[in-house]
Design a protein that fits this description.
- It is a single chain.
- With about 300 residues, the protein is mainly α.
- Among the domains are: about 1-70, no CATH class; about 230-305, Methane Monooxygenase Hydroxylase, Chain G, domain 1.
- Helices cover about 80% and strands about 0% of the residues.
- The protein has 11 helices and no strands.
- It has helices spanning about 5-30, 35-70, 75-80, 85-110, 115-140, 145-180, 185-205, 210-240, 245-260, 265-285, 295-305.
- Helix 1 packs antiparallel against helix 2.
Length: about 300
């Protein structure tokens, strides 16, 4: 395990150095109370350092329990010579301590205001626990009582794994979708929405038949399609306003292509298709008077652009 005293000493030294540096700069700047902002900055640095160490050490301790308590390597001489005592320790202390650690972090992640990353951390711990216990069960060196205890623990951890993985996927994808809606450029909207899709797909690889995940994926696909349709409709309206009717028709047809995607709801597709078809018909009627005689300068410009 890493040295706690060394880490704390380094954090205190850094915080003290920052305090004196800011204090000296504020004194030279003529501040009346230089110790107040300097002390506040040093306290924030120290608090962040302690919080980060707490998170890292909890995960490290859980992995330590999993690696040394559950995943006993069969090639170890110590485990062969004293096989009974490690098994008792595993059943009575290490197994229970690991479950308590997972349950504690699960309760902390379920508190109001927790981030989706906290749920993902618990899901990773549950995955590590299930992998290690499966390996211990396959070894065939556990008695019936220990096997029953492990199976009971696995059932609890599987439920926690599903709960926290789905909670992470739901929260993270919603945050990314909201961020995509706030973006100004179409490319940024689509790129951020694809990140939300990757989040949903990662959870679907574990739980492919989960209805909530599939519904979320369809909703994000529909959002991406609507962004593309709105983009091409806007370009078509700009072209029509400038008198580039052929270009506007082509861009309306591009919008129709994305509108016919499976992710778009049938009622939305029907209403949008009707509106775009009407716009295309109006533009085609404006092109008919000039289609036979001579070409307008604007249409010539469009041909050159093509």
């Amino acid at each position: 395990m890493p040295s706690s005293a060394g880490y704390l000493a380094a954090a205190i030294v850094i915080a003290a150095g920052l305090f004196f540096l800011l204090w000296w700069m504020l004194v030279r700047g003529g501040d009346d109370a230089p110790w107040l902002p300097a002390g506040l900055a040093a306290s924030v640095v120290l608090l962040v350092a302690l919080s980060a160490r707490e998170v890292v050490m909890r995960r490290a301790w859980t992995r330590y329990l999993l690696d040394h308590g559950i995943s006993q390597k069969p090639g170890s001489r110590s485990s062969r010579s004293s096989s009974r005592s490690p098994k008792k320790g595993f059943s009575a202390s290490l197994h229970s301590a690991t479950l308590r650690t997972i349950q504690k972090q699960s309760s902390a992640a379920d508190l109001p205001g927790s981030t989706p990353e906290a749920h993902l951390d618990v899901a990773h711990l549950c995955h590590d626990y299930l992998s290690s216990t499966d390996e211990a069960m396959r070894s065939g060196r556990l008695g019936s009582e220990k096997g029953i205890a492990i199976r009971a623990g696995q059932e609890r951890v599987r439920a926690l794994h599903k709960h926290h993985l789905l909670t992470w996927a739901r929260g993270h994808s919603r945050a990314l979708t909201y961020e995509a809606q706030q973006r100004a450029r179409t490319f940024d909207k689509i790129e951020t929405a694809h990140k939300a899709l990757e989040c949903i797909d990662s959870a679907l690889r574990v739980y492919p038949n989960e209805p909530e995940l599939n519904e979320s994926r369809l909703a994000i696909d529909e959002f991406i399609a609507s962004v593309k349709v709105a983009h091409w409709v806007e370009l078509a309206e700009r072209s029509a306003f400038k008198g580039h009717y052929r270009r506007a028709i082509d861009r309306y047809r591009d919008a129709l292509y994305y509108l016919t995607q499976d992710a778009v709801k049938p009622d939305v597709r029907a209403a949008g298709t009707e509106r775009i078809d009407r716009q295309i018909a109006e533009l085609q009627s404006k092109l008919r008077p000039t289609s036979g005689a001579r070409q307008t300068p604007r249409d010539a410009d469009y041909r050159e652009d093509q």
